[in-house]
# Entry
Amino acid sequence: MWSVLAVMAAALAAPVAAQIGGRPTRPQVTRPGGPVWQVIRKNCISCHGIDDYAFFALDRAGWQTLLETKHKTGGAVLSDLDRNTLLDWLTAKFGPDTKPFPRTYVPPEITTFFSDPEAKRLLDRACTSCHMLDRVDNARYPEERWRVTLVDMRERGAKLTDEELERLVEWLGRVRGTNQDK
# Structure
């Protein structure tokens, strides 16, 4: 019984701890393969992760300037081949036609939680104007991934207040989380 209580306490404390720190939600960038990953592994990840790239939407010249500005002192020294490989990938993945991940969203602490009918009504209102709910029903994500997805959907036009977004994140994490069986 004590172990069940400890697990429940940890599960409840983790989201609150993350919110108290005021840290913004992080994007999740899929690691590239091949030569791009070799360049990043050799030159970049000893100082920072690859998720930071998603905060930008730059053309090749913008990425070049950012690399030069951020790595002036003590940074990575890239060969021309490595620099071109990295710039090609950055421009393709995070170019000017992409949408940068918002830096300003900080999840508010919520104290009330959705019941299943409340959550389903909100999903019907906010989501079905653009897509069917099978995308939601078939997905299994942890809360942080649901938050990233909902922030992105709100940026694309979903009508969600911060409180609705967080209550929906909590519900989706609980009902459509990674530990759920279909």
The first helix runs from residue 2 to 20. The helical segments are 2-20, 34-43, 60-70, 80-93, 116-126, 134-137, 143-155, 162-175.
